[in-house]
């Protein structure tokens, strides 16, 4: 039986969401928001806090990679032991206080931030949960142990992106999808060319927001007056949505960028009632 995952009660997810929120604030030079985020993180994730200890249990499983099977199993066993030794009421109350401060000082939208390893964090949360059945727990633990043995995944953006690569990509896109670029497409390509300077950070932040916007558009696409009359268009819109949702597992690559550029154009057409060609 699948357990509903409450991401607000997933300490590691909330921590990663706050890190990404702080990154956005830094890029926007929003000093006030930076101050609030840092204050919340210091308050709730101090060295002696229960949330810091809980976070370390998660981290030992989602940050550990390229271990041998025996070491991976030992780490998992120790993480589970330390998690069980925590007081459940203390942990619950600490999470409640953190959620309250995020909602009050920042915004509930922080919990909607895109976290690339969300599925892994949710898996770990189920392993720690008493509500998980023995069978499901073993299956999930095996999955995590296998993940811990993998070498770190290197995406295309882990390598510097220079002007030649950028021009090649743009030329290929223009040849295949001829037409004037939209503002949002120019923004995406601009982030793409500058991504070598910060290891793709600004691009990832932009994609976080843009993919969320496009997912909303594509989710509603089957009900659009010009789409619902064409079963093929309905199916294609669902395929595009599926590709966007797979971003967290696949990472950033040329295929994803091309899909987003095409989806941006489609979203624009849908927003103008299909009058664009």
Fold and architecture overview:
Helix 6 packs across helix 7. The protein has 277 residues and is mostly helical. The chain has 2 domains: 142 residues, no CATH class; 116 residues, no CATH class. 68% of the residues lie in helices and 0% in strands. The longest helix is centred in the last third of the chain and has 20 residues. It has 13 helices and no strands. It is globular.
Summarize the structure.
The protein is 68% helix and 0% strand. The chain has 277 residues and is an all-alpha fold.
- Amount of beta strand: under 5%
Query: Mean pLDDT, nearest integer?
Result: 78
Number of helices: 13
Helix/strand structural class: mainly alpha
Question: Which labels suit this protein?
Answer:
mainly alpha; 68% helix; 0% strand; 277 residues
Task: Annotate the secondary structure layout.
Layout: H1 11-27, H2 31-44, H3 50-62, H4 69-84, H5 88-106, H6 118-128, H7 134-148, H8 163-176, H9 183-194, H10 201-220, H11 231-245, H12 247-250, H13 254-271
Helix pairs in contact: 1-2, 2-5, 3-4, 4-7, 6-7, 9-10, 10-11, 10-13
């Amino acid at each position: 039986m699948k357990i509903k995952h409450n991401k607000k009660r997933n300490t590691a997810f909330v921590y990663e969401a706050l890190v990404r929120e702080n990154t956005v604030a830094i890029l926007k030079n929003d000093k006030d928001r930076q101050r609030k985020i840092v204050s919340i993180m210091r308050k709730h994730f101090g060295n002696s806090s229960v949330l810091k200890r809980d976070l370390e249990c998660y981290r030992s499983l989602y940050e550990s990679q390229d271990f041998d099977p025996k070491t991976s199993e030992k780490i998992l066993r120790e993480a589970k032991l330390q998690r069980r030794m925590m007081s459940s009421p203390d942990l619950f109350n600490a999470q409640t206080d953190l959620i309250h401060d995020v909602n009050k000082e920042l915004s509930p939208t922080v919990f909607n931030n895109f976290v690339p390893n969300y599925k892994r964090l949710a898996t770990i949360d189920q392993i720690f949960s008493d509500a998980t059945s023995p069978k499901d727990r073993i299956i999930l633990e095996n999955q995590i142990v296998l993940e811990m043995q993998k070498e770190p995944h290197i995406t295309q953006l882990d390598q510097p992106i220079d002007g030649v690569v950028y021009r090649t990509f743009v030329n290929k896109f223009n040849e295949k999808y001829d037409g004037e670029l939209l503002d949002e497409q120019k923004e995406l390509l601009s982030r793409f060319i500058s991504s070598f300077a910060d290891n793709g950070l600004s691009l990832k932040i932009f994609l976080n927001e843009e993919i969320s916007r496009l997912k909303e558009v594509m989710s509603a696409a089957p009900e659009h007056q010009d789409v619902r009359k064409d079963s093929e268009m309905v199916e294609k819109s669902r395929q595009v949505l599926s590709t966007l949702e797979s971003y967290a597992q696949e990472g950033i690559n040329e295929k994803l960028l091309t899909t987003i550029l095409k989806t941006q154009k489609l979203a624009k057409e849908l927003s103008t009632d299909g009058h664009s060609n």
